[in-house]
């Protein structure tokens, strides 16, 4: 998705504003292989996974960004 849409592949060091834009685009455009929408619960699981990833993989120089709190 990131390559196709010319979005950054590495999200760990994006500013909160840039991360918000990238994830907003991602969730808006995300479809199943058959073209149908994901269920809201599935999107919630994806959000939790991305949040968990970001909490464990931000660079030591940047403040962690948590997608659920916007901090």
Task: Give a verbal description of the structure.
With 71 residues, this protein is mainly alpha-helical. It is 51% helix and 0% strand. It has helices at residues 2-5, 16-29, 40-57. The longest helix is centred in the C-terminal third of the chain and has 18 residues, at 40-57. The chain is globular and about 35 Å long.
Mean pLDDT: 81
Query: Pairing-aware structural class of the strands and helices?
Result: mainly alpha
Helix content: 40-55%
DSSP summary: helix tally = 3
Rg from Cα: 13 Å
**What oligomeric state do the depicted chains represent?**
single chain
First CA to last CA: what distance? 26 Å
Strand content: under 5%
Write the layout of secondary structure elements.
Blueprint: H1 2-5, H2 16-29, H3 40-57
Features:
71 residues; mainly alpha; globular; single chain
Brief description of this entry?
The chain has 71 residues and is mainly α.
